[in-house]
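To: structure subgroup
Subject: Chain for Friday's discussion

All,

I'm putting the inputs and outputs inline so they're searchable in the archive.
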Amino acid sequence: MSNYYMYAQGQHYQQPQQSQATMIRPTKPEDWEPYREIIAEMYNTLNMRLKDVMTQMQIAYNFKATEKQYKTQLKKWNLDTKYIKASEYLYMIKTLRERKAIDPNKETRFILRGKVVDPKDIARFEKRAIKKGLLKEGEPIHVDDEPIEEITCCTPPPEGMDSYPVWQTGDYDGYDPSSEYPYSY
């Protein structure tokens, strides 16, 4: 059973209202507060798409806001962490290039907001950015020199060391494999 249907049985869910209740259109921050936990649960915990959250909020709570309003509110509540931002990809690409310049054989993994970032996603972003002209092959990347706090860079454990669940599941609980392996393979 998918999370979406399980949510329908959860504590926050209400059946669509049959009465002719007035539509709630948020115009000030206070209008959003009663729905904060519900929106957070649907968007981040249940991993629903924003369009689905908007539809569900309109059906179940007569709460109607524009996509831009939702995005602004998600950003204010720091709930916009589901997707990797361009600035975060650029920081990862810059770090990858710097590490490759030092040791071309060294493998690099990134952990962003507790999840391992798939190297294929980074490569795909880089390829698209080069195609669009945002990046040039071999040229330095200009991003803030300040590291992004939520990104951790490390060398993955050697092959055959599958006992570390972080590399299998993508979840990261603070373990730094580089502290245990002072050398890389």
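Points worth raising on Friday:
The chain is about 45% helix and 5% strand.
The first helix runs from residue 3 to 7.

D.
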